[in-house]
Structure formats: structure tokens, C-alpha cells
Amino acid sequence: MTNSDIYDVALATQPEPAGPSGPARFGPAVLRLDGIVKTFPGVRALTDVTLEVLSGEVHALVGENGAGKSTLMAVASGALAPNEGTVEIGGTVLASASPEAARELGLGIVRQDPALLPDLTVAENMAVGVGYKRVGGLGRAVAWSQKQLDPWQMGIDAKTRVADLSVEQRFIVEIAKALALEPRVLILDEPTEHLSLEEVQKLFRTVRSLAAGGTAIVYISHRIPEVKQIADRITVLRDGQVRGTFEASEVDEQQIVERVIGRKLETVFPEKGGVSGAIGAADQLAVRSLSGDEFHDISFAVKAGEIVGLAGVQGNGQAALIRSLAGLEPTTGTIEVAGRALSNGSNAAAAGAGVVYVPADRHGEGVFLPLSVGDNISSKTLSQVSTAGLVSERRVLAVAAEQIKRLAIKTPSARTPIQSLSGGNQQKAVLARTLLSEPTVLLAEEPTQGVDAGARVDIYRILRDAADAGAAVVILSSDGVELEGLCDRVLIMSRGSVVQELTGDEVSEAAIARAALTSTTVRARTDADTSARGVKLRRFLRGDQSPAAVLGAIFLVLGIVVAATNPAYLGAFNINNLLFMAAPLLFVGAAQQVVVLGSGFDLSVGPLMGLLVVLASYWIVDGGNLYVGVALMVAGAIGTGVINGFLVTRFAINPVVVTLAMYMALQGIYLTLRSTPGGIIFGDVADQIQARVGIVPVVTILAVAVLLFLEFALRRTRWGVELRGVGSRVDAAARLGIKVKRTRFFSYVLCSFLVLPAAVIMMAQIGIGDGRPSLSYTLSSVTVVVLAGASIFGGRGSFIGILAAAFLVQQVLNVSPFLGLSQAWSYWLPGLITLAAAVLYAQLRRSRRRRRAAAPIAQVPPAPTSPARTSSAQNGSAA
């Protein structure tokens, strides 16, 4: 019997769990999980878990990171299928793992990692999240979404792209989306991690109102004071098993923490001042007159062995300051490490001086998710596990095993992918990597955010050990208890300045809250983009259509310059030729855009055009059969798309690999059919394809119409929203109920089908069965997509941009003879323009990120600390 088991037996004499049907003051069970078992490769996440949540109650689910809470709720919400057991919502069994089915049964969920699609607007996200019928269709989504968001007073515009929101605003969108479902069951998974006190209280009032109306609420949190404040009953989950259900009024914070970790919690915070009780005399980190976008004239110093905290109301420059110390933000002023001045805004210089940064965004900046635990731990000290540049796996595993044991990282092995670990254990791996580098200065931003009580104790010890080893430690935390128990000094920031310093016995949760309260005026939240002038212009520049405007302007300017040099450029023959030659590029660019939007790629578009032309040369000729020829071309196009889509989605093969193989296969097929050009295309067919209205080719008009229709479908139909959603963030799309594989499969089919008209036009252009001229269209399609400003990672793009890019590329190819340039310029100019566009778009995205980070998100300062909260620090609670 383990120590945890002994402790569970000891708990048998403690307050009795509620009966199977729960307290009489609540209604019947609305959510019932019975005998749930869930395993992953090498991990048994849940073992025979049974849980009932009653109508009208707030039922807290608590446990350490890795206890199985989020996994259990993923099963309840239909995002994961259990290996064994049943899920029942409102008396109806959830027949299969389907988020959409769970939503229809009345379950709403606010996830710890919001299931938001960053490249879609807020309104589009809410429409996908709650269902198109509920919002009245995409046309009404903006007004409907704005109505749900306005009561939160967060300055969120429903037309804004989610990627341009602050972290706090994203969580409000996730919460508003779940509440809009008017759910029978509402799951809140760590809903307050990024909210201010005012927003937390607003959320609690909403939760209580929902419970009073009969909604069953599951509340998951590591913040035990919040659990005590909001919950009616508490279920403890440890190591994937239920360890008991208790009335919240019958257990105190200390008892909850002890039940969560399965043992008595003797000490939470290590002794200040380190093992030796001494802090170094010299300044290890010295900051003088440091200023940045969100703070100004900051001066302070940290000695070796000292832990200094940064505190204050969120949005007052603390986060920007600690990132600047790591060289991640541009600054003016002086930063010295061990007496050596660093180059401002250089993370390489900071790292070279021994500065190590532990970010708050664990997934985005802290860990390399595809890599193993061992690789993550060793990634900053590769020189210690390599010889002559070759990394030794044996040494990596040995180093990792030592750190795993030392820091009590819960993982099956060092080879386990770090993405399968809980948040607390991922954070320990980040800290293990930090300690291995023997930092001179350790910067930790919200080091225990989203971490359970037991892991917090370990992390506090790790941070103090780093200080004992001689590091100067700076911690940014929004938890006053944490700052009180861990820090030797605390600097209070307000409006970008240090307004007060607390030292020694002055460092207390109450003093920290009081300093923040008296130093910060009450301000309403504002959104920098909606409160400033030129809102519509900035939104347009951030949108998917701005590249089209830039490319259109370049097209016109280039045309005017060439026409001024050579008037023949504006002749009817040249304009007709330019437009006709652009038509296949419009279709093939649109084809490539379709798969890129869904986070795919298709290198086979060029050879597919060649194959279709060769097939036509056997039937669309004198003595042939036009209908058979067209049918073969259609079958060839759709068949290629089906094969590409099937291989990419069914076997999860990288699309570049699949379509490169298809590229070679198609090329081999058409060369086998016609190793030399042959088969004259039927003249009447070619003439019909080259028909025109005035000087404008009919096929070009048709191509423009198709692209405009695709643009409309991309913005206004479910297909377009879901395609962009899959490309934006595939895991969130799946959790929202989007059929990811089906969406991606049909994107390849549509891509190949759009190649068909391009092949028909090329057939009329060359007039003979020759597939070789088609090969250049693969590269041209990629060029057009990049010029159009699409994200090659998916989710963002515009068919209007494809329209402008295709015409510009064809124009560049067309102008060389009129300017007297050699043929080489027809290759150099598109390359130079593409590179310039890529640089321009990268700079625009970078400036967008900076503006978003610098946006003032003012908050009402926190209220004075409650007695219960203060006593938790005195009792040693890690919450």
C-alpha cells in the first residue's frame, strides 16, 4: 500500500462524501460519467471514474496537473472517446465522441486552452462554436456576437481577428461563447487564470445565476480560495481516480490541498535567504533608466542569491519589463549582468551573459512540443551532451533522467513527447533546462500559472535552489501569496513605473495589494484599435484584402510607366494577350490557394495540367470525340485530387511529400503517353476557348467570376469558415466539431478540379498534346499565393489577392520586351517582387504583433485581500 493509499484510508474518518444522488437541495443528475477509462500510449489517464453533477449545483473538480481532470472533461464534451464507460448528458447517452453532439445535448465548455481559431474573426469563432443556426447564419453573426460580448465591457469588437486580441480578451470570448449556448451543463476549466479580480467576480455572479436557473456547472481550478468561494461540492481526482466527493462547506483550504496531493503539506515556501541565509554583496543584475514601449525610467538591482518580485495590476508594464530584461523587447537605458553591459533588445547577448527567461506562455514559448522530454531538457545545453557537433542520445537520456528524478517530473520516460505531459510537469521540464544552464540571472514570468498545489511547492523549491546557487532571480507573478512567501523584495509597478518597493517584513500579500490599489487609478478597459482614429483603415491593413490593394497599385503604376516608355503596350493585341495568358494562372493560383488555406500544399498542379492536355490531344482532335475527351479530363482532375486528399488525410502523410510524388507520377504518365508533342487540338474548340468580348477574353471573365464566387464562399459560407478554421488551428477546429479530415480531403479535390479549366485554356494556347509547358505553373501558383499575402501555414488568404497577384505576375512577364530587357528579366522580376512582398508582409505581421502587445489593457485594481486569502498564506496553502 502506497503513502497516498494510506492517506486515503485516513480520510475515511473525515467528512462523508455526498451520496450517489447528491444533496437533496439540488435537482437530478444532468451530467453522469460512469466507469470512464481512458488510456494513451504508455499512460493510463483515467481509471474507472464515476462522476455525477446535479442540476443547480456548482461542482468543483480538483487535482494535481496530470490527475486527469482535463482529460475527463474532454471525454464529457465529446472531444475524446473513452476506452470504456459511458457519458450521459441530460439523460441521453452520448453515442460517440462528437463535440457537436455534446453541444446539441446542452453541454458547453470553457477550456483552459481556448478552442479559438486565431485567423478567424471573433464573430466567426462564435458562430462555429455555438452553431450557425443559433446565431442566425454568418450574415448575422457580427451583431449577435457583439450582443454577447458587450456585457463584459472588454472593448472586444466582433469583427476583430482573434489573433489580434489580448490573452484576457480571448478568454472572455471563450466564456461568452459557452454561456451563449444557454447550456444545461457548463464546464469551466481554469476559467480565471487570465482574468482580473473584477472579471472573476463578474464571472462568479454569472455562474451563480446559471446555477440558480438549474444549470449544472463543473468548475476546475487550482486556485483553492476560488473553489471554496464558488463550489457547492468538491470531487478530488488523483492519478486518474476519484478519491472522494465532499461538501465544500465541510473542508477547509488546507484539507483540500492535502486531499489533492495525497499527503500532509508541511511546508510550502522554502526559507528566504537560502540555505546559508546570506545574499551576495555585489549586484548581479543592475538596471538603470530603462525605458520601453510600456514602461519608462526603471532602475533597480538584484544581488546574487536574492529573489525579487514584480507586482501590480496587470497591464502596467511588468510583462514588457521582464521580457526586455531577457532581450526580447527593444529598450533604451542600461542593463548590466555581473558588471557587464548588454546590448539592448538582443536576446543573444542576454543569453550569452547567462540570462535565462522562463515565459508565461508555456506552449508558445516555453517548450518544443513535438520533441521529447529529454530533448527539451537538454536543448539549452547541447554542448554538454555532444561531441564534435554530434548529439549523443545516451548522454541526453542520462542528463534528462537525472533531472526527472531531481525535480520529480511525472513522465513515463525521457523519450515521451513533452506535449503529452501535464502543464505542471512541462513547467518543471522548462525549469530543469534552466537550471542545467547554471543561470547568472533567472527571469520567471508567472512560473506557477496553471500549476497544481503539489507542483507549486516543487517549483518554489527549484527557484530558491537557483538563487542559492548564485543566480539573481526576478519573478513576475499576479499571486500575492506567492510573492509574499518567496520573494526577498517586491517592486510594485503602475503605469509603467516602479512606484513602491517592499522589503523584509514589509513583503506581505496585503501590503502588495494595498500598494497596487493606492498607486493605480481606476481606469476602464480600452481597446487600442477601437478607441483610436482610423479604425477602419487599420482593420483593412490588417485584413486579408490589403495585399490585393498593394498589388493592384503596383500593377497600375507599372502599366503607366511601361506605356509611357512604349505606347504599343496599351495596344488591343497586347492587352488581349496579357489577359488571355493570365487566365490559366488565375485558375491555378486559386487552386493552390484552396489547399493552402486548409494548411496544405499541392506541388502536382503543373504536371496535372500537362496530363489533362495530353489526354485531350487523343480525343479533342479531328476524328475524335469531344465528350469522351472532356470526360477523361474531368476524371483525371478529380481522380488526382481524390488520391492526394486520401493519402494526406487517411495516412497523415506530409502534403509536400504526397504531392511531390504525384508530381513525378503525373509527369511520367504524360511522357509515356506522348514522349514528343503530337495530336493537333480541334481548331473550332480552340477558337471557342479564345473567344472574346471586345478585347477581353471570355475565359478571363469566367476566371474572374470564379474567383469572386470563391471569395464570397470563403467569407460567407460554412465551407469557407471551416476551411480557414482548419488551416488556422487544426486541434481547436476538431474540438469545435469541424470535420477536419473531410474538409482537407475536399480541398484537394476542389484544387484539382480548378486545374481543369487552366488546362483547357493552356490546351488552346499551345494547340497540341504537349505536357512540358505546364511544369512552370507549379512554381507560378506558389508565387501567386505568396504575393497574395496568404499564410503558407494556412488560415489566412484571399482570392481577391490571387486575382491581383496573377495579373501582376503576368504583367511582369509581359513587360520585358517593351522595356527592351533580356529574357532573363522575366525570371528575375517575379522573383524580386515575390521576395519584396514576403519581406513586406512579414514586417506588417511583426508590427501587428507589437501593436497588440503594446495595446493598453487597463484594469480596475484589485480589491483589498480577503481574510480567507490572507490566512491561506499563514497556513501554508499553496493555492
**CATH hierarchy: architecture of the largest domain:** Orthogonal Bundle
According to CATH, what is the topology of the largest domain? ABC transporter involved in vitamin B12 uptake, BtuC
Largest β-sheet summary:
6 strands, mixed
- Evaluate the radius of gyration: 31 Å
- By CATH reckoning, the class of the largest domain would read Mainly Alpha
Strand content: 15-25%
The rough form would be described as globular
As for the number of domains, it is 3
Number of helices: 35
Number of strands: 26
Describe the 3D structure.
With about 900 residues, this protein is of the alpha/beta class. It contains 35 helices and 26 strands. It folds into 3 domains: about 5-105 and about 185-260, P-loop containing nucleotide triphosphate hydrolases (Rossmann fold, 3-Layer(aba) Sandwich), CATH 3.40.50; about 285-525, Rossmann fold (3-Layer(aba) Sandwich), CATH 3.40.50.300; about 545-855, ABC transporter involved in vitamin B12 uptake, BtuC. The model is unreliable at about 1-20, about 520-535 and about 850-879 (pLDDT under 50).
